[in-house]
Amino acid sequence: MSASELATQAGLFSIVTMWFALVLRARPALRQPYQRGLWLTVLAATIAITLFQPEVVGRLTHFGVELHTVALIRNLIGVLSAGLVLLFMVDSTRVRRLRLTVAAGLTTVMGALVALDLLQADHPRESVTSVQGPADPAFSYWLILIVAHLAGDAVALVVCWSYSLRTEDRDLVWSLRLFAAGSVLALVFWCGYLWHLYGGTSAMLPYLSLIIGVHGCIRAASLLVPTATSLVRSWSALRVTWRLWPLWRDLVLAVPQVALASPQRTRLQEVLRPRSPLALQAHRQTIETYDALLDLQRFVQPGAYEEAHRHARRAGAPEHRLAAAALAGTLGQARRAKLAGAPPSVPHPLPGVEHGSPATLLGIARMWPSMTDALPWHDDPVDAGAPPHRE
Fold first, then answer.
1. Contact between residue 123 and residue 138 where contact means Cβ atoms under 8 Å apart
2. Closest by alpha carbon to 381, among 304, 322, 329?
3. Per-residue CA distances from 114 to 17, 145, 362 (Å)
4. Is the pLDDT of residue 386 over 60?
5. CA distances from 131 to 51, 55, 150, 196 (A)
6. For labelling alongside 160, which of 111, 137, 176, 302 has CA 20 to 30 A away?
7. CA quadruple 278, 283, 286, 292: dihedral positive or negative?
8. Which residues contact 358 (CB under 8 A, 6 or more apart)?
9. Per-residue pLDDT tens digits for 250-289
10. CB 157, CB 187: distance < 8 Å
11. How would you write the chain as a 3-class SS string?
12. pLDDT value, residue 383
């Protein structure tokens, strides 16, 4: 695959990714002031990058839009994107004079580009032949254009990285660092573009297109950090709900007073039709499982844990799961004792479950199917030879 083909695919992928991120994050971002600036910045960058793609420019010229017009709009929106980056950076300072200064500078730069474009009578619009070149070949025009981008991206790099070292919000840290990484690529792109306009060859353009395409993907990623975090949390909650369900169902059926809602008929129904958000449901099931475990400690027989531990070892349970298997066997016996109507006794605290960590409960749940009936329970201790009770 040639550099030109790779750049084309990367460019198309980047604009699709950026537009997808913008649409997905539009509603939550526009409602929150601290995300609104980032969203608008990525929007302007997305439009500029879209108009940088040769295929897009070709389609626009095919429908009668002049190449000069496309280049000018791309340049203006690109400068607007750089200015919005600066506004996004200085907005956190809450200094009104600084924001006004940046806004005035942005307006001046965009006005200067338009004025220079209109004054360059020596370079008619038909002379603009490169779909990725500036609207005007005049030195002052593209120097203002590139310096504006370099200034915006340099400030964004420094500010984003420094702020990412101060905050403890993980979403904000990743958003800022990804934005800083995108600014690095933008700086590389504009330095390369400056070299291309000053004395380089058109052979550089595919590589510059590849760099700006990757830059677009990173900008989109910085916008999608909250969505990615939410998906990871939902997946973790779904995993906890799915793996904990058999243990949770059996324990809350034995200790129904700890459950806010009775289990549904199947595990699949529990995850596909949750009666509360997944994160809340996973948290609730974890707490209810632990509460039921505490109640069942009143039905634990002396020596049950040690016996279950020996049984699990004989059954070939891995060494790192012996403790969870012993707990599962002990709880299974205590559960059956309560369901059979055995009188409670002094609680026998089980080792390793003092705080009811999700990892401990998930370990018990993993061993629950094989250990729930591992230990026999008898109504009469004399009847020690009776077969174990099965439900």
1. yes
2. 304
3. 31, 11, 64
4. no
5. 9, 9, 21, 14
6. 111
7. negative
8. 240, 286
9. 999 999 999 988 888 888 888 888 888 888 999 999 999 9
10. yes
11. CCHHHHHHHHHHHHHHHHHHHHHHHHHHHHHCHHHHHHHHHHHHHHHHHHCCCHHHHHHHHHCCCCHHHHHHHHHHHHHHHHHHHHHHHHHCCCCHHHHHHHHHHHHHHHHHHHHHHHHCCCCCHHHCCCCCCCCCCCHHHHHHHHHHHHHHHHHHHHHHHHHHCCCCCHHHHHHHHHHHHHHHHHHHHHHHHHHHHHCCCHHHHHHHHHHHHHHHHHHHHHHHHHHHHHHHHHHHHHHHHHHHHHHHHHHHHHCHHHCCCCCCCCHHHHHHCCCCCHHHHHHHHHHHHHHHHHHHHHHCCCCHHHHHHHHHHHCCCCHHHHHHHHHHHHHHHHHHHHHCCCCCCCCCCCCCCCCCCHHHHHHHHHHHHHHCCCCCCCCCCCCCCCCCCCC
12. 38
Query: pTM of the entire structure?
Result: 0.75
Sign of CA dihedral 228, 32, 21, 39: negative
Which burial class, exposed, middle or buried, applies to 113 when counting CB atoms under 10 A from its CB (0-12, 13-18, 19+)? buried
Question: How many other CB atoms sit within 10 Å of the CB of residue 297?
Answer: 18
